[in-house]
């Protein structure tokens, strides 16, 4: 018997055996096993096709066409059998309408994530891009590149949680040596501003981004403080950007977030990475500016910090500070959520209390 005749006979035998087994199979799981046996990668049909190289071109065509035809026929029989078994299973399934119904809980967004999404969607509408970065940072991105050199007093404001065995304050050396050492000191980021540095090092102006994320500081938990909290930083860098652009952007944002009737004011402040810098207040959403317990009778609520990007920061990332200007702003999401939703204690956001979370 020639190889051609032997292969054709093998194909016919496979077809006959598979057809009988498919017709007698009683479950979908057993049917799947048959599919693997006869149509899987290591099935006999595929082994036969590997012997085609030993045939002449005319013989290869004969065997190949027959094997493919059998393969398609078996695939169709398996589909039909699967449909038949599924239908039979559905018919056997009995529903007892006397049983009590199952209660399904509808989930809701966490208020912090809900507010982050709302803020990001607003800035996306202005053409900003949402970016992110690592929560475990190095000192250089968290402080040094943001114009906060070694031993700068602003470092003590952050109460940093260090991951390295030694901190910058335990090292000795010249300012340049300490500056270089900040590239090797690991910490948990104290704000999301490092994301601005990482993004500016990757991209050239014009640049419009917002960076939401978790931050960490050595705070004792109380009604208004948490060692873990969320911030959203914003950054815009291009030619000709002025403080007026910053004011217009933030006034539009805060009125969209709280109320179209909200008043916004800017107070001179200080941040190492912006100059000039400002604290931004919004008229109290509780009393409308008349004075109450929430605003401590001032009529104003502090909501974020902002300013024009310091030229030293632009030069640090390779931007020409004579050509480009920019503004930056940062806000604590928990504080905004407490004001927007009337939440008295920041710890409620972290307790996973369903009765609290279901309100949102």
Structure commentary:
The protein is an alpha+beta fold and 360 residues long. The protein has two domains: 3-92; 111-357, 2-Layer Sandwich (BirA Bifunctional Protein, domain 2). Helix content is 41%, strand content 19%. It has twelve helices and ten strands. The protein has helices at 3-24, 28-39, 44-49, 57-92, 111-125, 139-142, 175-181, 193-202, 243-257, 311-316, 333-341, 354-357; strands at residues 129-130, 136-138, 161-162, 186-188, 207-216, 228-238, 264-271, 274-283, 300-309, 325-332. The strands form two sheets. The protein has a seven-stranded mixed sheet, sandwiched between helices. The protein has a three-stranded antiparallel sheet with strand order 2-4-3. Helix 1 runs parallel beside helix 4, helix 2 (28-39) packs antiparallel against helix 4 and helix 5 crosses helix 11 (333-341). It is elongated, with a radius of gyration of 34 Å. The N and C termini lie far apart (78 Å).
In what range is the share of β-strand residues?
15-25%
State the secondary-structure class: alpha+beta
Order of helices and strands: HHHHHEEHEHEHEEHEEEHEHH
From the alpha-carbon coordinates, what is the Rg to the nearest angstrom? 34 Å
What is the total domain count? Answer: 2
Mean pLDDT: 87
Brief write-up:
By secondary structure, the protein is of the alpha+beta class. It contains 12 helices and 10 strands.
């Amino acid at each position: 018997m020639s190889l051609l005749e032997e292969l054709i006979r093998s194909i016919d035998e496979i077809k006959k055996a598979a057809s009988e087994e498919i017709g007698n199979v009683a479950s979908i799981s057993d049917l799947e096993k048959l599919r693997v046996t006869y149509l899987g990668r290591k099935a006999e049909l595929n082994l036969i096709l590997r012997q085609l190289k030993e045939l002449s071109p005319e013989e290869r065509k004969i065997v190949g066409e027959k094997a493919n035809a059998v393969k398609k026929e078996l695939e169709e029989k398996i589909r039909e059998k699967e449909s038949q078994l599924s239908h039979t299973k559905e018919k056997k399934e009995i529903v007892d309408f006397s049983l009590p119904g199952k209660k399904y809980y509808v989930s809701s967004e966490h208020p912090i994530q809900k507010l982050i999404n709302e803020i990001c969607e607003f800035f996306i509408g202005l053409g900003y891009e949402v970016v992110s970065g690592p929560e475990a940072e190095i000192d250089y991105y968290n402080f040094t590149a943001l114009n906060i050199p070694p031993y700068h007093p602003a470092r003590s404001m952050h109460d940093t949680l260090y991951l390295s065995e030694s901190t910058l304050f335990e090292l000795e050396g010249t300012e340049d040596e300490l500056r270089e050492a900040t590239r090797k000191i690991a910490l948990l980021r104290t704000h999301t501003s490092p994301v601005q540095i990482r993004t500016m090092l990757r991209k050239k102006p014009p640049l419009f981004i917002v960076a939401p994320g978790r931050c960490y500081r050595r705070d004792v938990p109380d009604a208004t403080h948490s060692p873990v909290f969320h911030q959203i930083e914003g950054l815009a860098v291009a030619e000709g950007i002025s403080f007026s652009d910053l004011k217009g952007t933030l006034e539009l944002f805060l009125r969209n977030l709280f109320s179209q009737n909200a008043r916004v004011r800017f107070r001179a402040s200080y941040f190492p990475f912006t100059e000039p810098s400002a604290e931004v207040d919004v008229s109290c959403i509780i009393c409308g500016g008349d004075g109450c317990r929430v605003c401590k009778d001032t009529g104003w609520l502090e909501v974020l910090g902002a300013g024009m990007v310091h030229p030293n920061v632009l030069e640090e990332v390779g931007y020409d500070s004579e050509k480009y200007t920019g503004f930056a702003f940062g806000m604590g999401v928990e504080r905004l959520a407490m004001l927007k939703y009337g939440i008295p204690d920041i710890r409620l956001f972290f307790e996973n209390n369903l009765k609290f979370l279901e309100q949102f």
